[in-house]
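Quick start: what a row looks like.
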Amino acid sequence: MKALLKKLGLTRPDPAAVALYQTAVAAARREVYYTEWGVPDTVDGRFDMISLMVALINRRIGLCDPKHVERVQELAQELFDVMFADMDINLRELGVSDEGMKHRIKPMASAHLGRLKGYTDALTPMDENERLTQFTDAVVRNIYRAVEDTSNASLVAAHAIALSIELDGATDQDMLNGHFTFAESL
């Protein structure tokens, strides 16, 4: 019943998912990425950084105690839904038509899911050097794919790894209730 009400637009998004998405967007908008680290300051570059931050948050949600499995699945789906509702709004504000939306949102969603897996896999190695190498490769593939100079990809990767460690320090309850924000330092 909840899914039907949601499709009809009769339910509000999960406040925890909204809060976590806002945390991801705030982290993705840090100026240093675009001004010093060479992340393209484009629609795609901004999407790539939001996707990275949401992937890190989603990974942490997935690490919650298995006793919360239902809530974890619900929150992960809600976070995805909130992200792509925002993408829809932003693309429309940029003038993308209804017809054009069909050709933009679906590939973006697919790309995000692929990145979620790629970033999560890159965080798996226990060896710090291997983790940095794998994450840098993922950042080059996903964020710097249209950029000739990828020399700063390792900075983005190292920062993302640090953010994932920060997320790992959050409690399950903070994550499940959307009570997490990244530290301001960079």
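That is the whole record. The chain has nine helices and no strands. Residues 13-176 form one domain.
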